[in-house]
Amino acid sequence: MALFDLPLDELRTYRSASAEPEDFDSFWAKTLQEARDHDLAARFEPVGTALKTVTVHDVTFAGFGGHPIKGWLTVPAWANSPLPTVVEFIGYGGGRGLPHTHLLWAAAGFAHFVMDTRGQASGWGGGDTPDPVGSAPAFPGFMTRGIEDPETYYYRRLFTDAVRAVEAARSHPLVDAARVAALGGSQGGGITIAVGALVPDLAAVAPDVPFLCDFPRATVLTDRAPYREIGNYLKTHRGRTEQVRRTLSYFDGVHFAARGRAPALFSAALEDQTCPPSTVFAAFNAWANEDKDIEVYDFNDHEGGGPYQQAAQLRWLPARV
Q1: Using CA atoms, how far apart are residues 249 and 139, in angstroms rounded to an integer?
Q2: Is 237 marked active-site?
Q3: What residues pair up with 111 in beta bridges, in sequence order?
Q4: Residue 83 bridge partners (DSSP)
Q5: 34 CB contacts (<8 Å, ≥6 apart)?
Q6: Which residue in 267, 317, 259 sits closest to 287, CA to CA?
Q7: pLDDT over threshold 90, residue 121
Q8: Of 26, 36, 193, 219, which is most buried, counting CB atoms within 10 Å of its CB?
Q9: Is residue 65 helix, strand or coil?
Q10: Whole-model pTM?
Q11: CA distances for 42 relative to 66, 116, 163, 202, angstroms
Q12: How many CB atoms lie within 10 A of CB 275?
């Protein structure tokens, strides 16, 4: 696919037309307070593996609604004092997978906490966290589950889980609570942007080709899933466009980015039809902290920089945590 979005010079100044709800901050403050009314109850159970250079813990903590959420905590085997820590969120359809698939950050000397994704993990990776909350009729996937109202939308639960994941990671004695960064790709990047706003004292964030940004543009610019799930829902449920747009406005990465306080390293791919580059730049340009940068991959689709972006993160992150 050749370039289909705005030219790069226009991307660097592009601003989203997404309308921020007046009660955005109070909505999220209420949501997180309700979650914190439940004991975090973070448990870290050692896992026996054949891995010699790391130790792994099977994690369970209370997320949205007090629901049990799973994760892995992987640390270098030599660690005996608190470490800088990466909390990672997973792309759409995936889950935490198996421990040996998450070795990069521990190999670089970090503690690494990867959160399972409620109700997903059957498209790839595998996971162990159900979503016990149902919804009204929805298009297959996750983008329209509970989309009738912000209170019931799927991503209200998932973003809350992610904030609680940071709190769970910080509760472990080998995690330096003052040196915690969040990162993830695609859906994981969108979650990272939300967490960057909802957890104001993170050391850094690194959203990679992030999803869930600039919904008004994304939903009409690309016909590729997962954004297309929203269009397919509205194709059947005629007349609900404004209702759906209102719900999505509470979860738009652009509005979270305007509250982002941590240093940030984004990435975008100019042939990305899954997360179009203008939607990524909409969040990057809105990011409130001036200590920010974006890696641009000219001829890549949604794979973005792949291992090259990981190398960029490995160069960038140690100076900030």
Answers
A1: 19
A2: no
A3: 85
A4: 175
A5: none
A6: 259
A7: no
A8: 193
A9: helix
A10: 0.98
A11: 11, 14, 13, 19
A12: 32
Tokens of 160: 């809350």
Give the residue from 203, 197, 217 showing the smallest Cα distance to 280: 217
Q: Considering 16, 18, 186, 249, which one is annotated as catalytic?
A: 186
Give residues with Cβ within 8 angstroms of 13, minimum separation 6: 285
CB 197 within 8 A of CB 252: no
Give the span between the Cα atoms of 264 and 185, in whole angstroms: 14
Q: Is 249 annotated in the active site? A: no
Are the beta carbons of 314 and 42 closer than 8 angstroms? Answer: no
Contacts of 9 (CB under 8 A, 6+ apart): none
pLDDT confidence band for 1 (50 / 70 / 90): low
Q: Cα 264 to chain center, whole Å?
A: 13
Q: How far apart are CA 206 and CA 193, in angstroms?
A: 8
Which one of the listed residues 5, 249, 272, 278 is annotated catalytic?
A: 272
Counting residues of the chain whose pLDDT is more than 70, the rounded percentage is 100
Q: Could you identify the residue written with the tokens 């942007």?
A: 193
Half-sphere exposure of 180 (CA within 13 A, CB side): 27
Instruction: Spell 191-209 as b/e; 16+ CB within 10 A means b.
Output: bbbbbbbbbeebbbbbbbb
